[in-house]
Amino acid sequence: MKKLFVKKSLSDIEEESNRNHFKRVLGPFSLTGLGIGAVIGAGIFVLTGLAAREYAGPSLIFSFALSGFACIFVALCYAEFASMVPLAGSAYTYAYAGLGELFAWIIGWDLILEYSLASSLVAVGWSHYFVKLLGFFGLEIPLWLTNDYWTLSHHTKALFIQNIPYIKGIPVVFNLPAALIIGVITYLLVIGIKESARLNNIIVVVKLSVILLVIFAGWFYVKSDNWGNSWATFSPYGISGIGTGAAYIFFAYIGFDAVSTTSQEARNPQKDVPISIIASLVICTFLYIAVTAILTGMVYYKEISIDAPLADAFSRYGLVKIPFFISVGAVAGLTSVLLVLLMSQARIFWAMAKDGLLSERLFAV
User: Fold this and answer.
1) Is 299 among the domain residues?
2) In this structure, what DSSP letter does residue 336 have?
3) Is residue 161 in some structural domain?
4) Closest Cα partner for 206 from 42, 328, 36?
5) Could you read off the pLDDT of 178-237 as tens digits, one per residue?
6) ∠307-309-311 over CA atoms, to 5°?
7) How far apart are CA 345 and CA 239, in angstroms?
8) Which among 129, 223, 226, 250 would be 20 to 30 A from 114, CA to CA?
9) Contact 268, 40 (CB under 8 A)
10) Cα separation of 274 and 287, whole Å?
11) Is residue 173 part of a domain?
């Protein structure tokens, strides 16, 4: 029974850190890029619409600030653990050091399920935005190659129109773009962390460029009247609306903790990992607030589109090319999110296998 609560001592952790199995190639810039890549997906282009329209109005900027402030406390905890336990495995490893093997096993499997489910959902979302991006070039992929069977089986008209092929009576329906992007990123991760980090940095630059384009281009079309001239018009749903909005958009901050899974690949994990976790969160918070301010300034909050708020806002002013760049940003955003999720999941597998909680085959580097 005592073995279930065996903990890793600090001396064991230090010895394990010195006996590193990975190449320490990640500096603070790459680590911060991984954090930003994990946090900013397509949510910044979508969530703001519904949250502003239904929950907080222009005061949604305070909702983002509130959620970011709450996340800072979580980030500080991760920063503290990352400096004390500079090993791969994130919360799994921290639980092993602080609570024991049983809790580490539970949290490890929680993380595996989390990253598996999140990767699947992000890949499906990536497929949606990729197909939308192809539409700008007049290209189209059949519905039976961009959806799952359950979705199409509930839309018989789509099944009839698309003439889905059958093999021995079984309909051939699967999400090809989602499967391909997972395969491509997995192959890249097998090549090495250095190459993966470089690609992530490029994708993050593209993503941030699109966000900055939205901010600076939208600034010229902001109408202060849309923000209101009093607190009642600026925050039509009151303090409770700000709180509800903060709860709704909290999902947009998920992912910054993934940086801690790469501690054993950081050049100076006890310094760089904590700084990168907090830096990525602060940068994302300011970008979220800026985009929200621009959106609610361009369009009266009750008229904001729920499905494509930013694209619709620019289309209202005749800027028909901006939606294309927004689609590029969404695809880039989800690509980096998927890359970091799959990378983090592999580190959890490795850490648990190293401790004997999974097959030792997963311990190979």
Assistant:
1) yes
2) H
3) no
4) 328
5) 999 999 999 998 888 888 889 999 999 999 999 999 999 999 999 999 998 889 899 999
6) 105
7) 38
8) 129
9) no
10) 20
11) no
Joined tokens for residue 23: 């190449």
The total of other beta-carbon atoms located within 10 Å of residue 15's CB is 10
Count of structural domains within the chain? 1
The pLDDT tens digits for 88-115 are 788 888 888 888 888 999 999 999 998 9
Structure tokens at 12: 């064991």
Q: Do 256 and 38 meet the contact criterion of CB atoms below 8 Å apart?
A: yes
For residues 38 and 115, is the Cβ–Cβ distance under 8 A? Answer: no
| Other beta carbons less than 10 A from residue 269's beta carbon | 25
**Terminal Cα-to-Cα distance of the chain (whole angstroms):** 32
Which range is least confidently modeled, 59-68, 83-92, 129-138, 143-152? 143-152
Q: Is the pTM of this model over 0.85?
A: yes
Neighbours of 163 (CB within 10 A): 8
Which amino acid appears at position 321 of this protein? K
Give the range of the structural domain holding residue 273, as residue numbers without chain letter. 8-138+178-363
CATH of the domain at 290: 1.20.1740.10
Please give the Cα distance from 320 to 312 (Å, whole number).
9
User: Dmax over Cα atoms in the chain, in whole Å?
Assistant: 69
Instruction: Give the tens place of pLDDT for each residue, 19-45.
Output: 666 778 889 999 999 999 989 887 777
Decide: 255 and 330 in contact? Cβ < 8 Å.
Answer: no
**DSSP label at 167?**
E
3-class DSSP state of 146 = strand
Distance between CA 96 and CA 354 in Å, rounded?
12
Tokens of 280: 């990525």
Domain annotation covers residue 32:
yes
Give the Cβ contact number of residue 154 at 10 Å: 9
Q: Could you tell me whether strands 166-167 and 170-171 are parallel, antiparallel, or unpaired per DSSP bridges? A: antiparallel
